[in-house]
Amino acid sequence: MRMYDIIEKKRDGGELTKEEINFFINGYCNENIPDYQVSALLMAIFLKGMNEKETSLLTEAMANSGDIVDLSEIEGFKVDKHSTGGVGDKTTLILAPLCAACGVPVAKMSGRGLGHTGGTIDKLESIPGFKTDISKEEFIKNVKEIGVAVVGQTGNLAPADKKLYALRDVTATVNNISLIASSIMSKKIASGADGIVLDVKTGSGAFMKTVEESVNLAELMVKIGKNMGRKTVAVVTDMDVPLGNAIGNSLEVIEALEVLKGRGPDDLKELSFELASKMLEISGLGDKNKCIKMVRKAVDEGLALSKFKEMVERQGGNVKAVEDYDLFKKAPFKYHFKSRDTGYIKEMNTNALGTASMVLGAGRETKESSIDHSAGIVLNKKKGMKVQKGELIATLYSSSMERIKEAERIIENSIIFSPSPVKKRPLILAEIN
């Protein structure tokens, strides 16, 4: 078998076989196939596409390129959740302890943030002392004993995806639905869960900008999951508006804790409860109404918050910080961003807000960049809200006034006002079962 023939076949619109896909993935991971040939195949895939069967085979090959996490020691139906990335998305911090409190084990591997989107691991590490690099044995032990653990992804989880993504990033082949779906699902399959709940974001702060694109991606990923023996469901959710009010690591942890205490922003509660109920539902605990009631009861009775405290304690964190937010690192500079106009906020570009948070120090421009856990933004006003001139729109936190000035400029340019009321679209736009 020759890579040349595989490239030629896809260039001409042919369907790749399992053997051809495995040959290409294994050869690239073993460094027997050079970057320039893989780049050519990626461009052929980008232009000619892949069908559902090919995409499932590519996902399987990428998942099998490294370690497959074995969760068989853990009793019960294990469920994972994945978000395609957004601004202010801190639902994992709520879902993991919440589902565990309802009896569904959550053994979650999460990533770090890059660019305008945040990462769950960075957020958890803003809790004083919290460790996300615990051993596999400790990871499994914690889930067996308390029902939950959230750790960083292993270095050898779907290594083919890491190599391919780096190449896609520099060859203008990122935005292809089959390549996106296989990238996401290969890591989820390799993570070892029995079921997967997908949160596919759409809008100005998301990778997929239109609802149609997002629905197509969600449907394809659900099909891939089912083809590979995983119970998989998805929701398509709005990311034209940040989720919740906090953007930035420690700020988002505090907001997530408020939800676990029965408070917090309505949109964050709505989506967190929806995703949690789906995780319970695919675990076989009942229909949607029953699962929603279980979720709310776990919050109302403080069970979810207690489970979060258990997780923090098990992973070396200071449990006192759950109640005393002053124990989180504080930013030395705070700035009140006030409105220059009166009217309704017609647009407040979510991508720009994420970029402004990164500029403040809450995110990374490159994988090597360090982050400031205390930096970020707390929004007082969001898209659709009425604002008076001089009224507080957001509070900015950073270690540098220069960073605050740059972030202020970005936010200022992201806002468009309207003299008349603005209609907001629903938070949950579609469900794929």
From TrEMBL:
PROSITE patterns: THYMID_PHOSPHORYLASE. It holds the Pfam family Glycos_transf_3. It catalyses: thymidine + phosphate = 2-deoxy-alpha-D-ribose 1-phosphate + thymine; uridine + phosphate = alpha-D-ribose 1-phosphate + uracil; 2'-deoxyuridine + phosphate = 2-deoxy-alpha-D-ribose 1-phosphate + uracil. Residues 344-418 form the Pyrimidine nucleoside phosphorylase C-terminal domain. One of its GO terms (biological process) is pyrimidine nucleoside metabolic process. Keywords: Glycosyltransferase, Transferase. One of its GO terms (cellular component) is cytosol. Its EC number is 2.4.2.2. GO terms for molecular function: 1,4-alpha-oligoglucan phosphorylase activity; thymidine phosphorylase activity. It is an enzyme of class 2 (transferase). Gene3D superfamilies: Nucleoside phosphorylase/phosphoribosyltransferase catalytic domain, Pyrimidine nucleoside phosphorylase-like, C-terminal domain, Transferase, Pyrimidine Nucleoside Phosphorylase, Chain C. PANTHER family: THYMIDINE PHOSPHORYLASE. Belongs to the thymidine/pyrimidine-nucleoside phosphorylase family. Catalyzes phosphorolysis of the pyrimidine nucleosides uridine, thymidine and 2'-deoxyuridine with the formation of the corresponding pyrimidine base and ribose-1-phosphate. Homodimer. This is Pyrimidine-nucleoside phosphorylase. The gene is pdp.
